[in-house]
Amino acid sequence: MRIFLGLATVLALPIHGLSLPAGGAQQIPLSNTALPLGYASDDVRPLVLWHGLGDSYASAGMLEFANLIKGVHPGIFVHSIYIEENLEADQRAGFYGNVEEQLLDVAAQLAGVPELSRGFDAIGFSQGGQFLRAYVEKFNDPPINNLLTFGSQHMGVADLPLCRPTDFMCQVARKAARSGVYSPWAQKNLIQAQYYRDPEQLPAYYTANKFLTSINNEIPESVNETYARNLATLSNLVLILFTEDKTVVPKESAWFGSFAPPEDELEEATRSKEIVPMRLQPTYLTDTFGLRTLDKAGGVLLETCIGEHMQITEDCWEPLVRRFVGGKFGENTP
Ligand SMILES: *[C@@H]1O[C@H](CO)[C@@H](O)[C@H](O)[C@H]1NC(C)=O
Question: Which of 149, 153, 218, 333: CA 20 to 30 A from 202?
Answer without folding.
Answer: 149
